[in-house]
Amino acid sequence: MLVLLLRLIQGLALGGEYGGAATYVAEHAPENRKGYYTSWIQTTATLGLFVSLGVILLTRNLLDKNPTRSIEIFNDWGWRIPFLVSIVLVIVSIYIRLKMQESPLFTELKTSGNTTSNPIKESFGKKDNVKMVLLALFGATMGQGVVWYTGQFYAQSFLENVCKIDFEQSRTILIWAILFATPLFIVFGHWSDKVGRKWIMLSGMLLAVCTYHYLFQELLYLAETNGNTIIIADKTIRTVTGITYWKMVAIVFILIGYVTMVYGPIAAFLVELFPTRIRYTSMSLPYHIGNGVFGGLTPFIATLLTTVYTENKLAGLWYPISIASLCFVIGAIYIDAKKTAQ
Fold first, then answer.
1. With bands split at pLDDT 50, 70 and 90, how would you rate the model's confidence at 168?
2. Which partner for 320 in 98, 109, 146, 254 could form a disulfide, CB atoms 3.0-4.6 Å apart?
3. What is the pLDDT of the chain when averaged over all its residues?
4. What is the pTM of this model?
């Protein structure tokens, strides 16, 4: 319960940081390069997953050469090692924060006395602002959230629990896919500066809706037909090798490719949607509800659906496909691609 409580506090703290980070970078960036500059922020979420997977695998392998024994040690006390290592990152973060200064745009507002004394009231107490917050949520971040969590977290769960791929191998498949796909965050962020952000994000959602069933079915097919199956303590475990392994990496790469399309431009999109004086507060709410609620529940609801509809191993995809479809329709109809705020 203590670890859960601390994890929730950590999530709330991260939530408060994201809006500030996106706003800070965007307000320092040249006007026509906000997508490119903020897309570097977007890489950090996926790179964080990449690093965490690598640290977990490295820690387990260093604890004991026997795989079974290393799992037991890691579950007993070894999991504390990554937490202790993270202290170094906390120190670096504090140092960076102490050296930061306000953006030129916000400094100008302060000098002219145009900052707001109550950003929450101004963000959610005015009809037009509330409308933009709701549109950002249901027309962009809701779909972005489910695509992000499906492409990275549910894909990992699907490989291990449905395809029965070995724990370590399922992680390395994800690690390779993340490594190859991460530069696409920068590509789509930069591209959004040239062609606009709306349709890149909505295209990522539409591609996910149209191809999720096929891609996950292919993962399952490869595991069941080409995997080497062993039974340990009544538990089925499969390993894949050669071309089959790299086919699975390629499929997960495509899934994460959709993530880069919806996530790469989203920071610049949200920053431009709201005026500077209430930008931090206004963009944070739709972003974190879209990701924390709609996206964060994806692995849980998807896994729950597979346990309810046991004959359909792809039943878990109904949730992200439904949410992304709804978001695509709302975003396509109601979001004005030309609208930006100063």
1. confident
2. 146
3. 86
4. 0.83
